[in-house]
Every structure is written in structure tokens, then in C-alpha cells.
């Protein structure tokens, strides 16, 4: 997935994707521009006592929330972007999907 500079935004945009889909009926590869939905996900842990400071809840090592790129046709998460301690901005990209059963 190219152009992963959308960290922090939400909405719809076109992204270049390349995803191999493995189904019981065969293999296909989707490449090219794909409509994706960018969803910003954040979580914070709030102590039950209510008198302590809330802390960021890391999602898969990302700090301060992540941005998910969701395929608007299949609902698959095509990627996620965020910041991680010690390495900075990180982008994880879906390259292969293995479907179990069905078509």
C-alpha cells in the first residue's frame, strides 16, 4: 500500500493495494486503486477508582491509537498505521488473505 501518510485522518480515499486472496475455489490477486475507509481507533484505560490519571492503552504496540484502512467492498482491514515507541511511525499492510470454507 502506497502513500501511508494518512495517520490521524478519517474518511474515505483511494489507495493502491495488492492483496492475494486464497479461496477454496482458487487464487486471485487484486491490484490497483481501491476505495478504502480510514477509521481512527483509540483506547484509554480509566482506573476504576477514578482518582488516577488515565493511561494510553497500546494497540498491538502502537501508542496513542491507530488508523485502520478498511476495504469498503469486503470489509477487510488492508492496513494500519500508528506510532510505536523507539521506532516512530509504523505501517502494517495486508498482503494475503486465506479464506476458510465458502467461495
In words, what does this structure look like?
This protein has 103 residues and is mainly β. It has one domain (11-98). 0% of the residues lie in helices and 57% in strands. It is built from no helices and 8 strands. The protein has strands at 11-23, 26-41, 44-45, 55-56, 63-71, 77-84, 88-93, 96-98. The strands form 2 sheets. Strands 7-6-5-2-1-8 form a 6-stranded mixed β-sheet, with no helix packed on it. The chain has a two-stranded antiparallel ribbon with strand order 3-4. Strand 6 and strand 7 form a beta hairpin. The protein is elongated and about 55 Å long. The two termini are 26 Å apart. The model is unreliable at 1-8 (pLDDT under 50).
Gist?
The protein is mainly β. It has one domain (11-98). The chain has strands at 11-23, 26-41, 44-45, 55-56, 63-71, 77-84, 88-93, 96-98.
Amino acid at each position: 500500500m502506497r502513500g501511508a501518510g494518512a495517520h490521524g485522518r478519517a474518511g474515505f480515499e483511494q489507495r493502491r493495494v495488492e492483496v492475494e486472496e486464497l479461496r477454496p475455489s482458487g487464487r486471485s490477486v487484486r491490484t490497483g486503486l481501491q476505495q478504502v475507509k480510514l477509521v481512527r481507533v483509540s483506547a484509554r484505560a480509566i482506573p476504576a477508582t477514578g482518582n488516577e490519571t488515565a493511561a494510553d492503552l497500546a494497540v498491538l504496540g502502537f501508542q496513542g491509537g491507530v488508523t485502520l484502512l478498511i476495504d469498503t467492498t469486503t470489509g477487510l482491514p488492508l492496513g494500519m498505521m500508528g506510532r510505536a515507541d523507539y521506532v516512530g511511525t509504523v505501517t502494517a499492510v495486508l498482503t494475503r488473505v486465506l479464506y476458510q470454507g465458502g467461495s
